[in-house]
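Quick one: structure tokens for this chain, please?
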Amino acid sequence: MSADSSDQPQWDCIVVGSGHAGSCAALSARDAGCKRVLIVDKCPPEWVGGNGYFTAGAHRTVHGGLQDLLPIVHNVSPEAAANIDLDAYTADDFTRDIMRLGDGRSDPGTVQAVVGGSRDAVQWLAERVKVPFILSFHRQAYLVNGRQVFWGGLVLSVEDGGKGLIAAHRAALEAAGVETWFNTAATELLVDGDAVVGLTVDKEGTPMQLRAPAVILACGGFEANKDLRGRYLGTDWERAKVRGTPYNTGDGLTLAQRIGARLTGDFAGCHSTCWDANAPSDRGDRVLSNQFTKSGYPLGLMLNARGLRFVDEGEDFRNYTYAKFGRAILAQPGGVAFQVWDSAVVGLLRKEEYADDVVERIWADSVQALAEKLRAKGLEDKEAFVETIERYNEAARAFRTEHPEKKWDPAVKDGLSTQSSSLKLELPKSNWALPIEQPPFLAVKVTCGITFTFGGLAIDPDTAGVVSDATGKPIKGLFCTGELVGGLFYGNYPGGSGLTAGAIFGRKAGKEAAKLAKSA
């Protein structure tokens, strides 16, 4: 829509979306010199925080090891620090993880911006936003020989998870004088020539034109839009459960496309995970939040309704496989699966995900009895279920007999597999392959929970400016951050990268908005 000259409210910067990325953008704009910063969000105030609220607060960052991170975490005493093994995570490590999980398709400039800006971003979050970072003992470390051993490159989370993250943001924004309008949907971008100069909104039923030299889109992807999921991801995705906010329905894509923004990235891909089959279908739970995640599969097996395995549960650390394994579950009959363990490892399952008051736990004294109980939960072939586990156990035992030097260690890729010279499974378990033989046995029913979509808007990674499809150059006055950014993730996802990227591009967008405000 072209802007008119009517006397409308004036702002230096308008951010669409109240989540982590949008909050970073708004605070950065304010700190960089914008006097009047407004956040608009179509959600009611009780749904503040976007998808960030539903996370564990995990941030993947380059770091130099334990001593580098101790100054920004709040849960490590000097005595505890002496018993922690936490390797450095280099820029090459981070880059390699994104590129290998995306089969080399990720935009190199966008990846470089995320990797290069990660450490400074978490420092800023800790110091400026007062995010209460902690070392993620409960999610990313195992106790091995009396030492806490971190694995998978991801070590930072937030006290009280996404709830703590968003609480810190809201306090910082209030102190900085940033205004937020809830129940306010962005409906159209205002343009003047080739520049964005404001935004039309519907504020509780009242249309308004808001003028500003900079608009930052931080309103997420389209994962909560069933029709768009079916169009871009495939019809199977219409039955996926929405993990987070129900308000991420593709509005940012629609707004930007109307003025010629370029789309990019993996529109057929998304971030998903193993999710409680009994969780709500169309939105997350504000109380249980990320506790519906079911990430204990590396310690056991996953079998579909026909009693067959369908992934290599030990392919890699959980935070490198969960995003694609959620998709794999959705492709199974009925879009469900059963995670199975024996009593030897049940104590290692995270209580916040697997406690009795969080998930329905199905116990039995034998694998046969477990299969019988699971028939009422959707298992179609109990004989195949039993045979699959028995065959797996044979292979796991054969490997241990042939390789007695291999020791089970959940904190490293231990090479304890099902593939010996005498017996190989068609679908291996490549690490952590313990026989499932110690009763009682536990099963949990899971499905696919969708978090965010990978396809989005093309941006200039130096400024977070949204790129015009016609010119290949940034559209003046329009910026983007968070899950709406395209070109970063393809097919799979290294855990904790999304929140980090949202902070990085949010900060860039806020600083650029301030430059425009000063010259307006």
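The mean pLDDT is 96.
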